[in-house]
Amino acid sequence: MQNKISDVLLQNWDYTMDVEDWSPPLSDALDGVNSTQASWKPQGEAGNSIWETVNHLTYYKDRLLRKLKGLPKQPELESNDDTFTVTETGEEAWEKAVQQLKSVHAQLREVIEALEEGAYEWGGSGHAPGEEVMSLILHDAYHTGQIVLLRKLQGSWPAQRNL
């Protein structure tokens, strides 16, 4: 049986959030993290917190969702650094940030599922939808690794994981 391009994208999309493959999915990386742990930063100017990274991931997922659905664009930010901004504090705000990330991820999954075989053909300028989805998959994997490392540095990552 031949898989559609969207099937391959969906499989990898699921690996990024919910399905264990070679690395932990984002849902496992965020499981059990409280707002204090989410706000913690390593020493140095270049380090981002887990919460900042979640907001960054949500921003780019929402941007792609809007593009693929033909919705109005988000307001332009001055730089990529602005996508890491956290404006709230507390457990409720942290849970809301995680839920927003998971919600936009699920909405994008529905769009990916509907992609046709021409997902890598694009009549306009820029990247084809399939290319943008694959790029976001790699982006998620990169930042999930950072979140796991932050949890290891703060001592909140389990020494043994049951898979």
Beta-strand percentage? under 5%
Number of strands: 0
Gyration radius, in Å: 16 Å
Structural class: mainly alpha
Termini separation comes to: 29 Å
User: In percent, how helical is the residue content?
Assistant: 55-70%
Shape: globular
Q: What is the H/E string?
A: HHHHHH
Oligomer: single chain
Characterize the main sheet.
none
- Number of contiguous helices: 6
Could you report the average pLDDT, rounded to the nearest whole number?
Answer: 90
User: Which residues sit in consecutive blocks of at least 5 with pLDDT less than 50?
Assistant: none
Write a brief caption for the model.
The chain has helices spanning 5-17, 26-30, 35-39, 50-69, 91-113, 129-154. By secondary structure, it is mainly α.
Describe the overall structure:
There is one protein chain. It contains 6 helices and no strands. It starts with a helix and ends in a 9-residue tail after the last helix. The chain is mainly alpha-helical. It has helices at 5-17, 26-30, 35-39, 50-69, 91-113, 129-154. It is globular and about 45 Å long. Helix 1 (5-17) runs parallel beside helix 6 (129-154) and helix 4 runs antiparallel to helix 6 (129-154).
